[in-house]
Amino acid sequence: VNLAFGIAMGFLFIFFDKIFSVMVNKSNFSPFLGAWLPITIFGGLAIFLMKELKGKITTKNQIITTDQLIF
Fold it and tell me: Burial letters for 5-39: b for 16+ Cβ neighbours within 10 Å, e otherwise?
């Protein structure tokens, strides 16, 4: 599930990047915003998700071994 979420986020970032580049080329949208807006959106999302993950890891205090992983 986590791998699929990561791949989906990667595709979504590329999609947003392409959308903003088309907006810059076809309209009067600022090139500065077109370049930095996808980065700031997904950077903020990454920081939020890392803080959520940190809270979950420190509360469990478990060590996951390789035989507990499901492939």
Answer: eeeeeeeebeeebeebeebbeeeeeeeeebeebbe
φ and ψ at residue 29, rounded to 5 degrees: -70, 140
Q: Tell me how far apart the 2 most distant CA atoms of the chain are, in Å.
A: 55
Distance CA 55, CA 44 (A): 17
CA pair distance 34, 61, nearest whole angstrom:
42
Task: Quote the tokens at residue 10.
Answer: 């990667």
Q: Confirm if 14 and 39 have CB atoms less than 8 A apart.
A: no
Q: Is the alpha carbon torsion for 10, 16, 20, 22 positive or negative?
A: positive
pLDDT digits (tens, 9 = 90+) for 21-64: 999 999 999 999 999 999 999 999 998 888 877 766 554 556 55
